[in-house]
Amino acid sequence: MPDDETRPEPGTPAEEERTEAVPHDPTGLSLARETARAMGARARRRRPPPSVTRRSVDPVSSGAHPDDRDPQTLSRAVHRLVDAKGWAAEVNVRTLLARWALLVGPSLAEHSRPERYADNELTVRTDSTAWATQLRHMAPQLVAMLNEQLGADTVRFVRVLGPDAPSWKHGGRSVRDGRGPRDTYG
User: Fold this and answer.
1) What are the boundaries of the region Disordered (predicted)?
2) pTM, whole model, 2 decimals?
């Protein structure tokens, strides 16, 4: 529009008269332009002079180098959680026990499995008493190897259990030296 340059400043009486004299615009384009000009004029009147305007520096804004407020990878977040909760030793033991075959060898790992780690004691279950005996003989080397990889005194004792046997004790009030399985089989 060529008459844009000759328009009076928004908010002046001449502008208000001109706004009322504009014919109906079905698209609303002229109304949008007039509204934008009026808003701009109000903003310019409220704005302080450029010499007074100072840009404040935010002392906690992120710079060019990474810091704790930047997005983190999931693995780093999990590591921070483990460290904060004090679970590092427990997680390290579980990770190492997940590689049981590398610790004791493939043949022994085939017939034994770690069951529990609590109070610096590792409990291992075997398939037979022969494998339990072999693992008991190997227990001091296993403790030394675990402590070497996990840190001193992480594992103090390895308890080796034989195969699971059925329990004939039922309930808390059973007879301690009762007949047991003999009365069942004959």
Assistant:
1) 1-73, 167-186
2) 0.50
